[in-house]
Amino acid sequence: MTVEKRKLEHIDIISSQNVSHDYNYWDDIDIIQKSMPEVDYDEIDTSTSFLGKKLRLPILISSMTGGHPDTKKINENLAIAAAESGIAMGVGSERAAIQNRTVGDSYSIVTEYDVPFRIANIGAPQLIKQGKNALTDDEIRYAVELIEGDALAVHFNFVQELSQPEGDRNSKGIKKRIGELSKKYKTIAKETGAGFSVQDSLEFKQLGVSAIDTGGRSGTSFAAVESIRSRNRSDEQKERVGTTYWNWGIPSPMSLMFANVELPVIASGGIRTGLDVFRGLSMGATLGGLASTFLKAALKSDKDVTDLVLQLETELKTAMFLTGCSSLKDIKKVRKVYRGRLLEWMNQT
Question: Which CATH superfamily is domain 3-347 in?
Protein backbone atom coordinates (compact mmCIF):
# COMPACT_ATOMS: atom_id res chain seq x y z
CA MET A 1 0.00 0.00 0.00
CA THR A 2 1.24 3.51 -0.81
CA VAL A 3 2.00 5.97 1.99
CA GLU A 4 -0.54 8.35 0.42
CA LYS A 5 -3.40 5.88 0.69
CA ARG A 6 -2.46 4.94 4.24
CA LYS A 7 -2.70 8.59 5.27
CA LEU A 8 -6.26 8.81 3.97
CA GLU A 9 -7.17 5.67 5.89
CA HIS A 10 -5.76 7.18 9.08
CA ILE A 11 -7.81 10.35 8.63
CA ASP A 12 -10.99 8.41 7.96
CA ILE A 13 -10.55 6.15 11.00
CA ILE A 14 -9.53 8.92 13.43
CA SER A 15 -12.34 11.22 12.34
CA SER A 16 -15.10 8.61 12.32
CA GLN A 17 -14.33 5.96 14.96
CA ASN A 18 -13.44 5.78 18.63
CA VAL A 19 -9.70 5.11 18.72
CA SER A 20 -8.90 6.86 21.99
CA HIS A 21 -7.08 5.33 24.91
CA ASP A 22 -9.57 4.12 27.50
CA TYR A 23 -8.61 6.71 30.15
CA ASN A 24 -7.70 10.38 29.96
CA TYR A 25 -5.23 11.15 32.72
CA TRP A 26 -5.61 14.91 32.36
CA ASP A 27 -8.94 14.52 34.16
CA ASP A 28 -7.01 13.42 37.26
CA ILE A 29 -5.63 16.94 37.76
CA ASP A 30 -7.81 19.28 39.81
CA ILE A 31 -6.91 22.95 40.07
CA ILE A 32 -7.22 24.94 43.28
CA GLN A 33 -9.09 28.13 42.39
CA LYS A 34 -9.24 31.61 43.91
CA SER A 35 -12.60 33.22 44.65
CA MET A 36 -10.89 36.64 44.77
CA PRO A 37 -8.47 36.38 41.86
CA GLU A 38 -7.57 40.12 41.57
CA VAL A 39 -7.29 39.87 37.79
CA ASP A 40 -8.87 41.83 34.94
CA TYR A 41 -9.92 39.24 32.36
CA ASP A 42 -9.38 41.70 29.49
CA GLU A 43 -5.77 42.29 30.55
CA ILE A 44 -4.74 38.63 30.71
CA ASP A 45 -1.63 38.04 28.59
CA THR A 46 -1.53 34.66 26.81
CA SER A 47 1.51 35.37 24.64
CA THR A 48 4.61 33.23 24.81
CA SER A 49 7.87 32.46 22.99
CA PHE A 50 8.82 29.08 21.62
CA LEU A 51 12.30 28.39 20.25
CA GLY A 52 12.80 32.08 19.52
CA LYS A 53 9.43 32.86 17.94
CA LYS A 54 6.58 34.83 19.49
CA LEU A 55 3.13 33.24 19.67
CA ARG A 56 -0.14 34.88 20.68
CA LEU A 57 -1.32 31.70 22.41
CA PRO A 58 0.55 28.70 23.90
CA ILE A 59 -1.15 26.33 21.47
CA LEU A 60 0.21 24.01 18.81
CA ILE A 61 -1.77 22.42 16.01
CA SER A 62 0.03 19.11 16.28
CA SER A 63 1.42 17.29 13.26
CA MET A 64 -1.31 15.39 11.45
CA THR A 65 -1.45 15.05 7.73
CA GLY A 66 -0.27 15.72 4.19
CA GLY A 67 0.94 13.51 1.37
CA HIS A 68 -2.23 13.12 -0.67
CA PRO A 69 -4.11 15.66 -2.83
CA ASP A 70 -7.16 15.29 -0.57
CA THR A 71 -5.14 16.41 2.46
CA LYS A 72 -4.04 19.71 0.91
CA LYS A 73 -7.25 21.49 1.92
CA ILE A 74 -6.96 20.20 5.48
CA ASN A 75 -3.48 21.69 5.87
CA GLU A 76 -4.64 24.91 4.22
CA ASN A 77 -7.54 25.26 6.67
CA LEU A 78 -5.17 24.66 9.56
CA ALA A 79 -2.61 27.15 8.23
CA ILE A 80 -5.22 29.87 7.68
CA ALA A 81 -6.37 29.53 11.28
CA ALA A 82 -2.84 29.28 12.69
CA ALA A 83 -1.82 32.46 10.89
CA GLU A 84 -4.94 34.33 11.96
CA SER A 85 -4.72 33.12 15.56
CA GLY A 86 -0.96 33.47 16.03
CA ILE A 87 -0.29 29.85 16.98
CA ALA A 88 2.20 27.19 15.91
CA MET A 89 1.46 24.26 13.63
CA GLY A 90 3.14 21.14 12.39
CA VAL A 91 2.52 19.06 9.29
CA GLY A 92 2.21 15.29 9.15
CA SER A 93 5.02 12.93 8.25
CA GLU A 94 6.64 14.16 5.05
CA ARG A 95 7.86 10.77 3.90
CA ALA A 96 5.11 10.73 1.25
CA ALA A 97 6.48 13.93 -0.35
CA ILE A 98 10.04 12.68 -0.11
CA GLN A 99 9.07 9.54 -2.01
CA ASN A 100 6.68 11.29 -4.42
CA ARG A 101 7.35 14.99 -4.81
CA THR A 102 4.21 15.54 -6.84
CA VAL A 103 2.28 15.56 -3.54
CA GLY A 104 4.61 18.14 -1.99
CA ASP A 105 2.04 20.92 -2.34
CA SER A 106 -0.19 19.17 0.20
CA TYR A 107 2.46 20.25 2.71
CA SER A 108 3.90 23.40 1.14
CA ILE A 109 0.45 25.02 1.07
CA VAL A 110 1.19 26.12 4.66
CA THR A 111 3.89 28.50 3.37
CA GLU A 112 1.24 30.61 1.67
CA TYR A 113 0.07 31.84 5.08
CA ASP A 114 1.91 33.72 7.81
CA VAL A 115 2.04 30.89 10.33
CA PRO A 116 4.32 32.15 13.13
CA PHE A 117 6.01 28.77 13.73
CA ARG A 118 6.04 25.81 11.31
CA ILE A 119 7.27 22.36 12.23
CA ALA A 120 8.49 19.91 9.58
CA ASN A 121 8.09 16.22 10.36
CA ILE A 122 9.89 12.96 9.68
CA GLY A 123 9.66 9.56 11.36
CA ALA A 124 12.38 8.20 13.62
CA PRO A 125 12.14 4.72 12.01
CA GLN A 126 12.98 6.25 8.64
CA LEU A 127 16.27 7.66 9.97
CA ILE A 128 17.84 4.21 9.80
CA LYS A 129 17.85 1.42 7.27
CA GLN A 130 14.80 -0.83 7.38
CA GLY A 131 13.78 -2.91 4.39
CA LYS A 132 14.71 0.20 2.44
CA ASN A 133 17.40 2.82 2.72
CA ALA A 134 17.31 5.44 5.47
CA LEU A 135 16.40 9.04 4.70
CA THR A 136 19.40 10.95 3.42
CA ASP A 137 20.53 14.38 4.63
CA ASP A 138 19.32 15.86 1.34
CA GLU A 139 15.88 14.30 1.74
CA ILE A 140 15.55 15.62 5.28
CA ARG A 141 16.64 19.07 4.15
CA TYR A 142 13.98 18.91 1.44
CA ALA A 143 11.33 18.14 4.08
CA VAL A 144 12.33 21.15 6.17
CA GLU A 145 12.63 23.52 3.23
CA LEU A 146 9.34 22.31 1.70
CA ILE A 147 7.36 24.03 4.45
CA GLU A 148 10.03 26.63 5.34
CA GLY A 149 10.17 24.96 8.72
CA ASP A 150 11.32 26.72 11.87
CA ALA A 151 11.99 23.32 13.47
CA LEU A 152 12.07 19.63 12.61
CA ALA A 153 9.97 17.13 14.55
CA VAL A 154 11.22 13.57 14.63
CA HIS A 155 8.26 11.42 15.61
CA PHE A 156 8.61 8.18 17.54
CA ASN A 157 5.79 5.78 16.75
CA PHE A 158 7.10 2.27 17.30
CA VAL A 159 3.89 1.06 18.96
CA GLN A 160 2.13 1.98 15.72
CA GLU A 161 4.86 0.50 13.54
CA LEU A 162 4.70 -2.85 15.34
CA SER A 163 0.90 -2.89 15.01
CA GLN A 164 1.03 -2.07 11.31
CA PRO A 165 1.17 -4.62 8.49
CA GLU A 166 3.79 -2.56 6.65
CA GLY A 167 5.50 -1.21 9.81
CA ASP A 168 9.24 -0.83 10.41
CA ARG A 169 10.92 -3.08 12.97
CA ASN A 170 14.44 -1.72 13.45
CA SER A 171 15.54 0.98 15.90
CA LYS A 172 19.31 0.48 16.04
CA GLY A 173 21.19 3.65 15.19
CA ILE A 174 18.47 6.21 15.85
CA LYS A 175 20.35 7.96 18.65
CA LYS A 176 23.30 8.68 16.38
CA ARG A 177 21.07 10.21 13.70
CA ILE A 178 19.16 12.31 16.26
CA GLY A 179 22.45 13.72 17.50
CA GLU A 180 23.52 14.56 13.96
CA LEU A 181 20.20 16.23 13.10
CA SER A 182 20.24 18.26 16.30
CA LYS A 183 23.43 19.95 15.12
CA LYS A 184 21.70 21.08 11.90
CA TYR A 185 18.11 21.87 12.93
CA LYS A 186 16.04 22.87 15.91
CA THR A 187 14.96 19.30 16.48
CA ILE A 188 11.85 18.32 18.44
CA ALA A 189 11.63 14.77 19.76
CA LYS A 190 7.95 13.86 19.42
CA GLU A 191 6.09 10.85 20.77
CA THR A 192 2.78 9.89 19.18
CA GLY A 193 0.84 8.34 22.05
CA ALA A 194 3.20 6.20 24.14
CA GLY A 195 5.02 8.94 26.05
CA PHE A 196 8.68 9.41 26.97
CA SER A 197 10.45 8.14 30.08
CA VAL A 198 12.92 10.09 32.22
CA GLN A 199 15.76 8.17 30.55
CA ASP A 200 14.44 9.06 27.08
CA SER A 201 14.21 12.73 28.02
CA LEU A 202 17.70 12.90 29.52
CA GLU A 203 19.15 11.18 26.45
CA PHE A 204 17.39 13.65 24.16
CA LYS A 205 18.92 16.50 26.12
CA GLN A 206 22.37 14.94 25.84
CA LEU A 207 21.83 14.48 22.09
CA GLY A 208 21.10 18.20 21.73
CA VAL A 209 17.42 18.28 20.84
CA SER A 210 15.76 21.68 21.20
CA ALA A 211 12.39 20.58 22.64
CA ILE A 212 10.34 17.53 23.61
CA ASP A 213 6.74 16.86 22.55
CA THR A 214 5.55 14.44 25.21
CA GLY A 215 2.66 12.69 23.35
CA GLY A 216 1.60 10.21 26.01
CA ARG A 217 -1.32 7.87 26.64
CA SER A 218 -4.65 9.71 26.99
CA GLY A 219 -5.57 10.66 23.42
CA THR A 220 -5.56 8.82 20.09
CA SER A 221 -4.17 5.30 20.17
CA PHE A 222 -2.40 4.54 16.90
CA ALA A 223 -2.28 0.88 17.87
CA ALA A 224 -6.08 1.08 17.80
CA VAL A 225 -6.00 2.80 14.42
CA GLU A 226 -3.79 0.06 13.00
CA SER A 227 -5.94 -2.64 14.59
CA ILE A 228 -8.93 -1.33 12.64
CA ARG A 229 -6.89 -1.12 9.43
CA SER A 230 -5.79 -4.74 9.92
CA ARG A 231 -9.35 -5.85 10.63
CA ASN A 232 -10.46 -4.23 7.38
CA ARG A 233 -7.83 -6.37 5.64
CA SER A 234 -8.73 -9.56 7.51
CA ASP A 235 -5.24 -9.62 9.03
CA GLU A 236 -6.20 -11.24 12.34
CA GLN A 237 -2.68 -11.40 13.75
CA LYS A 238 -1.98 -7.69 13.34
CA GLU A 239 -5.49 -6.81 14.45
CA ARG A 240 -4.85 -8.62 17.72
CA VAL A 241 -1.48 -6.91 18.20
CA GLY A 242 -3.17 -3.52 17.84
CA THR A 243 -5.94 -4.50 20.22
CA THR A 244 -3.50 -5.88 22.80
CA TYR A 245 -1.45 -2.66 22.76
CA TRP A 246 -4.42 -0.30 22.43
CA ASN A 247 -3.65 1.23 25.85
CA TRP A 248 0.12 0.85 25.89
CA GLY A 249 2.27 3.71 27.09
CA ILE A 250 3.11 6.29 29.72
CA PRO A 251 0.20 8.59 30.66
CA SER A 252 0.50 12.04 29.11
CA PRO A 253 0.88 14.00 32.38
CA MET A 254 3.56 11.55 33.55
CA SER A 255 5.40 11.87 30.24
CA LEU A 256 5.27 15.64 30.76
CA MET A 257 6.75 15.28 34.25
CA PHE A 258 9.45 12.96 32.95
CA ALA A 259 10.32 15.45 30.18
CA ASN A 260 11.05 18.32 32.55
CA VAL A 261 14.81 18.26 31.90
CA GLU A 262 15.29 22.00 31.34
CA LEU A 263 14.14 21.98 27.73
CA PRO A 264 10.98 23.51 26.25
CA VAL A 265 8.21 20.93 26.49
CA ILE A 266 4.96 20.49 24.54
CA ALA A 267 2.14 18.84 26.48
CA SER A 268 0.20 16.58 24.12
CA GLY A 269 -1.74 13.35 24.03
CA GLY A 270 -5.36 13.77 25.08
CA ILE A 271 -5.37 17.59 25.30
CA ARG A 272 -8.95 18.56 24.38
CA THR A 273 -9.74 21.91 25.99
CA GLY A 274 -8.19 25.16 27.10
CA LEU A 275 -8.39 23.80 30.65
CA ASP A 276 -6.23 20.85 29.57
CA VAL A 277 -3.75 23.30 28.05
CA PHE A 278 -3.75 25.14 31.40
CA ARG A 279 -3.11 21.86 33.23
CA GLY A 280 -0.15 21.15 30.97
CA LEU A 281 1.30 24.63 31.43
CA SER A 282 0.90 24.33 35.20
CA MET A 283 3.10 21.22 35.07
CA GLY A 284 5.89 22.95 33.18
CA ALA A 285 4.90 22.83 29.51
CA THR A 286 5.52 25.74 27.15
CA LEU A 287 2.75 24.78 24.71
CA GLY A 288 -0.27 22.52 24.60
CA GLY A 289 -0.65 20.46 21.43
CA LEU A 290 -3.91 19.16 19.96
CA ALA A 291 -4.33 16.92 16.92
CA SER A 292 -7.58 15.01 16.40
CA THR A 293 -9.67 17.90 17.77
CA PHE A 294 -8.18 20.19 15.13
CA LEU A 295 -8.47 17.53 12.42
CA LYS A 296 -12.23 17.25 12.89
CA ALA A 297 -12.58 21.03 12.61
CA ALA A 298 -10.27 21.24 9.58
CA LEU A 299 -12.34 18.66 7.72
CA LYS A 300 -15.13 21.27 7.77
CA SER A 301 -13.55 24.69 7.13
CA ASP A 302 -10.87 27.15 8.17
CA LYS A 303 -13.56 29.06 10.08
CA ASP A 304 -14.28 26.00 12.17
CA VAL A 305 -10.60 25.79 13.04
CA THR A 306 -10.46 29.49 13.91
CA ASP A 307 -13.59 29.12 16.05
CA LEU A 308 -11.98 26.19 17.84
CA VAL A 309 -8.89 28.26 18.64
CA LEU A 310 -11.13 31.02 20.00
CA GLN A 311 -12.90 28.47 22.20
CA LEU A 312 -9.57 27.14 23.48
CA GLU A 313 -8.40 30.68 24.19
CA THR A 314 -11.58 31.47 26.13
CA GLU A 315 -11.26 28.29 28.17
CA LEU A 316 -7.57 28.95 28.89
CA LYS A 317 -8.21 32.55 29.96
CA THR A 318 -11.12 31.43 32.13
CA ALA A 319 -8.81 29.05 34.00
CA MET A 320 -6.22 31.82 34.31
CA PHE A 321 -8.79 34.26 35.67
CA LEU A 322 -10.16 31.74 38.19
CA THR A 323 -6.67 31.09 39.54
CA GLY A 324 -5.46 34.68 39.60
CA CYS A 325 -3.03 34.36 36.69
CA SER A 326 -2.50 37.50 34.64
CA SER A 327 0.22 35.94 32.47
CA LEU A 328 1.42 32.47 31.53
CA LYS A 329 4.35 32.59 33.94
CA ASP A 330 1.88 32.74 36.84
CA ILE A 331 0.36 29.38 35.87
CA LYS A 332 3.34 27.39 37.13
CA LYS A 333 2.61 28.69 40.66
CA VAL A 334 -0.95 27.37 40.72
CA ARG A 335 -1.63 24.60 43.23
CA LYS A 336 -3.00 21.29 42.00
CA VAL A 337 -4.46 18.10 43.40
CA TYR A 338 -3.58 14.81 41.71
CA ARG A 339 -5.92 11.87 42.08
CA GLY A 340 -7.11 8.61 40.51
CA ARG A 341 -4.92 6.50 38.26
CA LEU A 342 -2.51 9.39 37.68
CA LEU A 343 -1.77 9.53 41.41
CA GLU A 344 -1.13 5.79 41.37
CA TRP A 345 1.51 6.36 38.69
CA MET A 346 3.05 9.25 40.61
CA ASN A 347 3.30 7.19 43.79
CA GLN A 348 5.14 4.38 42.05
CA THR A 349 7.62 6.16 39.81
Answer: Aldolase class I (3.20.20.70)
